[in-house]
Amino acid sequence: MSCLRAIISGVREFGVWFDGTREYLSRKRAVKRGKKPKPRSAFETTYEIRLHPLPCWSKLSIEEQQAGVQELVRQIEEEAKARRRKTGKAPLGVAAILRQTPDHQEATDLRHRT
Each residue of 30-41: pLDDT tens digit? Predict the structure, then answer.
């Protein structure tokens, strides 16, 4: 999940909290009583994700914050483009990203990249 769209455009973002502990206890009680467990959705709560500016940007207007984030994104994209030109390595693409496991990590730890 990325907050980039919300920061740049001001679009409100929402997330779903799943209370696994409550679901487990409820399911355990239902099984003990011979009843059908409640659906997973009964333990989900939707929350608005409220974003706050970094302290160093808190005095900037929303427009200045958005411009600052857009500039950071532009710099990151330029650095990535330069790295791809230098290494000849292409971006993964959607299919390759979806094939990865959630704990996938490159052979080189990100903290040690130059």
Answer: 999 999 999 999
